[in-house]
Amino acid sequence: MKTVAAISDSIENSIYDPGRSVITIKDMQLDPVVMVSRVYDGDGEFESIDVSEIIDAAFSECDIAAVSVGYLTDDSVISYLAGKLSSGEHAPVVARPSMISDDGDILVDESVYHAFADHLMKHIKTVIVNSYEAELLSGFECVMESDYMRAAKKIHNTFGCHVIVTASEQTGGKLIACVGDKSSWMDLPKYAEGFEPHKYALSSAIACGYAHGFSSIESIEFALGFCTGNKKIEDLIGTPEPEDPVKAEKPAENISFVSPGKALRDIARGFNSEFKSTEDRPAPAVTSVIDENLNKPRGEVSGLTAPAKSVSDTVTELQALKERLEKLRGAAGNSGA
Q: Considering 50, 199, 310, 321, which has the largest number of Cβ atoms within 10 A of its Cβ?
């Protein structure tokens, strides 16, 4: 099973809980490797965790098929991750930086923005931003709805990545997807009845689509349906075929072992019976695991204990055979004449 790595800070009971990524990756039938750099409590206090060794181990020991980057507030972690990605070819990276909230609140320091924009963005395949972050990364103010489309294209041209601007009042309730040369407005699917909102993480869902080998637009469209409860992973990869059940071995006491000699005798008797009347046929051989007792010592082979012929008898037999052959040749010559 392929592995998807997710890295973010943790704020429990919020949309920034990395547990959402774990559930997303598992429900997409992939293995998660989650790295948490800071753990925040309810008062805003946090505990930092050195994830550099974890990042090294994940990239060296795991076959990473995709990477999901979430909310990070430590610029050194962002820079370290960017350095690791720059060391060679890497799996597709999907990022949702969450530098500004949907309400317009700034959530990170300026150093975090620079680490993200200057170092990490060049390694990202798809970035997910809200309307405020779209203005920040594009560098110009958006006044009309159409301006957000221009902002998405500007981000794409500047950083060379696909761009998703999440649906908001500023975008007229529509999501903007700028994938390569194609840009479109997309209606956000409504949550399926009974589905828990915010159960899944969109960035991790898109990363899982990449891990399964699907294109950017396929991954994005499926992730939107998956995160709203309208699609299941079986819609993307099909239902796995059930494994063949393991057949129980036959108990040893129920197996009949027939010796080679016994099997050959049975075949010979069956062959000879074709030339005999029904009355003269012998009874069918009894199948058993041991040859019948032949009234000879254990290990004795038939024929080896028979009395040996004398040399004179053998010479006499050969002479008689020679005379018969001479007579046959003479008879054949006379008939030919």
A: 199
